[in-house]
Structures are given as structure tokens and as C-alpha cells.
Design brief:
Structural class: alpha/beta
Order of helices and strands: EHEHEHEHEEHEHHEEH
Radius of gyration: 17 Å
Number of helices: 8
CATH superfamily: Spore Coat Polysaccharide Biosynthesis Protein SpsA, Chain A
Helix content: 40-55%
Number of domains: 1
Distance between the termini: 37 Å
CATH class: Alpha Beta
């Protein structure tokens, strides 16, 4: 897809151990991609290490924020940054290798005939690695719950490995998105589908994080659980 100008947005907080290998793998898989690291004031020096790579590689950019402001606000800040420039496709991606950089070209290629593409664990060919049965059950059940309540034809509503054509994000009111944790993924997909944009799911292999600590918490789970009814009832 030679005409594409992709931007991969990666929020970070204490991801120093992963960062350089992650950037190397992203650019090995998709050499033309630019990467925007959105760092929330990582005390382990992730932001400073990203600055060093950016100084050496014009494809890497860094946004520094004052502290942990939430996953959703990090992506919205990244989207706005990308839309202010000439990028044609904007990706969401985690920094912990649960989203394999080698899948980036597959998501980009799928965007030829879709408005936004979701890397999916729960379509044929998708998988999870090193997950106990109860974690798979919670994740699949959460997606089924959200899909049933919202009526969105997407099997993996809670996933965060996505590619948007810029036109999708240009036509959404990003400031109206209220969720800041993992509920952000549900809300963004729902709003894009409600606006008439066509989703497509492609199978991915989702591995457990390699290094660092999970950002999941009880409050994030509760937010995602209650969010779907607020969306359904038009209270967001």
C-alpha cells in the first residue's frame, strides 16, 4: 500500500525495557511508518529514551505528558497530533508486545476495503497465548456483553490493536469520548460504527505482556462494564 503514510501511536508508562526492541520491530515490519510515543511522565526514563531514538530517527516522535492521564486521553492526543499532519492511517498499539508489530502490514492492507480495522482475538484464526481459561472467558464474555448491548457487529470490542483511515477520526467528535481506561476501546469502536464507518476484523495472536506491569485495574473494568449501558441509553 505504497500511498499510505501510517502513524503508529503507542502510549507508554514505564516501558523502558520494551521500547527500543519495540521500535526496531515496528520498523522492520512497516519501514515507512512513523511512530508517536505518548509518554505519561514515566519515572523509569521511557520518555528520555524515546527522545534519544527520535533524535537519531526522523520516523520517531515523542509527546510528553505530565503524568498518568489515562489510555483514552493518550490516544486522543495522539490522534489529534496525527490529524494535524499528513498521515493517512493512524494505528493504536500497546507497548508490551501483546500486539505483535509483525501484524501491522496485515491491518494496513485490510484498510483497503474497510474504514477501520481491528486486530481480533476472537475471530477465526485469532488466538491468545499464555492466558488461563478464566481470563479468556472474562475477555470473550466482556466482548459478547458489549456487542449484545450495543448491537455492534464486532467480536473483539475490547481489543486495542486498531488501524483507522484518517477520514474516520476526522469525522468523530474526539472530545466527546468520555472513557479513559479500556472502555475507551469500546466507545471509540461504537462511535465509529454509529457514524456509518465500516469495520473489519483480522485475526491476531495476542500474547501476554513480556516485561513491565499490567495497567489493568478494578476501576478500569468497572468503567468498561457500566459504559456500554450509558452508550446504549445515550447518556454519554
Amino acid at each position: 500500500m505504497s500511498e499510505a503514510q501510517p502513524l503508529v501511536i503507542i502510549p507508554t508508562y514505564n516501558e523502558r525495557d520494551n521500547l527500543l526492541q519495540l521500535l526496531d520491530r515496528v520498523h522492520s515490519a512497516l519501514p515507512e511508518a512513523h511512530v508517536l510515543i505518548v509518554d505519561d511522565g514515566s519515572p523509569d526514563g521511557t520518555g528520555e529514551l524515546a527522545d534519544e531514538r527520535a533524535a537519531a530517527d526522523g520516523r520517531v516522535h515523542v509527546m510528553h505528558r505530565s503524568g498518568k492521564l489515562g489510555l483514552g486521553t493518550a490516544y486522543i492526543a495522539g490522534f489529534k497530533w496525527g490529524l494535524a499532519r499528513d498521515y493517512t492511517h493512524l494505528f493504536e498499539m500497546d507497548a508490551d508486545f501483546s500486539h505483535e508489530p509483525e501484524a501491522l502490514p496485515k491491518l494496513l492492507a485490510a484498510a483497503r476495503d474497510a474504514d477501520f480495522v481491528l486486530g481480533s482475538r476472537w475471530v477465526k484464526g485469532g488466538s491468545t497465548v499464555n492466558w488461563p481459561w478464566y481470563r479468556r472467558a472474562v475477555s470473550r464474555g466482556g466482548s459478547l456483553y458489549a456487542r449484545t448491548v450495543l448491537g455492534v457487529p464486532v467480536r473483539d470490542l475490547t481489543g486495542g490493536f486498531k488501524c483507522f483511515r484518517r477520514e474516520v477520526l476526522e469525522n468523530l467528535d474526539l472530545d466527546a469520548i468520555s472513557a479513559v481506561g479500556y472502555g475507551f476501546q469500546i466507545e471509540l469502536t461504537y462511535r465509529a460504527a454509529q457514524a456509518g464507518f465500516r469495520p473489519k476484523e483480522v485475526p491476531i495472536r495476542f500474547a501476554d505482556r513480556v516485561a513491565g506491569q499490567s495497567k489493568m485495574s478494578g476501576s478500569i473494568f468497572t468503567e468498561a462494564f457500566t459504559l456500554v449501558w450509558k452508550l446504549r441509553l445515550g447518556r454519554v
